[in-house]
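This section describes the prediction task in plain terms. A model, or a person checking by hand, is given the sequence of a single protein chain and must write out its three-dimensional structure as a string of C-alpha cells. No templates, partner chains or ligands are provided. The sample shown here is typical of the held-out split.
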Amino acid sequence: MSLRIVRLGTPRLPGEGLRIGTVRRPPRGVPKSEFARQNWYDVWFPNLAPSLPLMQQALAAETPVQ
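The expected answer:
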C-alpha cells in the first residue's frame, strides 16, 4: 500500500482512495458533513498530528535539511 501526503482541500485524483486528516483542529467554518465533499478528509485522526514541540522545531528550521 502506498501513501501520499496532500494539502487539505486540494482536488482529488482519480482512484485516490481514503483521505485521513491528521490536523489537531478541524477547519473552522466547515461543517463536519462537508469535510469529505469539500476534499478536506474522509476520516479525522488528530492523534496522528505532529506534537506542538515538533511543529515549533519545524517552523524554526532555516533550511530544508533541518
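For orientation: The chain has one domain: 1-66.
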